[in-house]
## 1
Amino acid sequence: MAGMFIAAGGYKLTGDMNEAFVAWGFPASFALIVGTLELVAGVCLLIPRIAGWAALGLMALMVGAAGTHLVVGEYFLALVPAVALIALGLIVRQRQLFGETGEATQSRVGASNSAPHPSPS
């Protein structure tokens, strides 16, 4: 997954996708923004401590990508971000980013390693 997003983000940074973004109704500069986010998050997928958060951010991008393809009638192309969305969801689940209640787990935000603080009396 990391390699795919690094490559896709890097390709968008070349400017070759600018016309496609304009055709989809976005400014050409949006390709640079999306490309940068994909590239950085792709690299972050390689860092176990933050891989879950990177996957979560990429999931948001993939929702937008799938939605864009659906709105402009590119139904078949919407499958690519949809499949990536599922794979990224598995990464989030594997990294145990969220507990059963939906709250961020203590071990992922670093609070479990700190000593309990006494309450003021």
## 2
Amino acid sequence: MLQQSPEYRRLDRLASVKLSDSYVIEEKATRLEQRRAARIKRAYGATALGLVLAANVGAYAADVHANMELQANASIGISVLGDAHEKSDASNALVFVDGFGSYDSISLTNSLGKAYQPTVDGQLWSVNYNNAILNRTAIADKIVETAEARGVTSVSLVGYSAGGAISAELVQELTKKNIDINLIAFNSTPNGAGGLRSERQNEIGLVEKIKHIPGAQYSTPLRFLGEMAFRSGAYTAPLDGDSLPENTQTFGQNIAHFFDTAGNVRRDMRENKMPGTWLMFDQVLAIENANIKDRIEELGDLPDTKIHPTIVYLGTGAPGYDYMVDDKKSAAEIGQYAADAGLPFYTAEVPGAIHSRPDLTVDAYVKTLTSMQDSIQDSIDEQRGIAYANQLAERYATHDAHNGTNAESGTYPDGGDHAAAAPDGSVPQPEATANPNAADR
């Protein structure tokens, strides 16, 4: 049954008041009517707000569901972007792994491949996240699958920023599957969350809070806002060290570039060329949960017959400044891990490097790696020589145990020395020179 409004019930009571009090009645009735009108207005407003919220909640839920399906149907991929310079190096691949905010590593491979390939030759591969779940086993499996298809037996992992932490997590999976690792290159990689600048550490805390909002990691609007913030260098005055001097913009240019950037972000989101919020959360977690120390220790504990990789760290040198990563601190810590594990380690600074745009300073990377080329190549060759010498010694020992040898001549009963040739065609010698930076093996 419909009920009278409170104001009408009060008006009924006012009807019994004497006519002499008509002025009072009119005044009170007017006030009551005004209250009723206001209450109805509030009710309409609340109803409208409820409808808007319901519509938005429905749209939010649909958006979240669509992005969850996108993630579920996505898979990790590898793009082969170039062959080795020399045929003799075709069995090696340089695997590039980009960091936070990346959908794939294609741009990184095309840029830094020019710098690394003259030093460590091999095929050029890009790890593509493709908005799939960031899973180290899935990445390692894809690398192994591609290696088997292309005749690759060893890889060099080149990680950029958070990609360095992700690369470190791959080593255990790859060595289990008999893929040798010649080199691990950390480029501006933070040694965990503590290797970030303090401002960036605060941002990780913000991500942790956002993560608790139901469905937030699958929200397209949130991803848009995050990408606009990530690309803010395109429409704001540059931070010191974050841009080249000629990229300084006026206020008017900033406004124009803001709308250009917003349009580019919308286009990239429509064409699915950007990492989803869920992938970026995973990339942040890769930094936060990074355990580079343990991964390097595991490499030091590899059998003597396995190649022990050379570790390289490239940071930013003057006139640049890494506003994301405390690269000097991270380089020193990772260098200490390598020393403790008995692995060779080399570090250098790339003059004027820009964390968010390594493609702008490719020439500086080329010059830096060229200056390190002989040391890195000698180190990799030496580690391979040690491994092959130990493989040879193990084969001799195994044959001794089963068939017997001439202990004085060191030959087998058939008169041959049965020295196994290395993949490059050379025959390793039983005596190998120990690497001064490596532990005795």
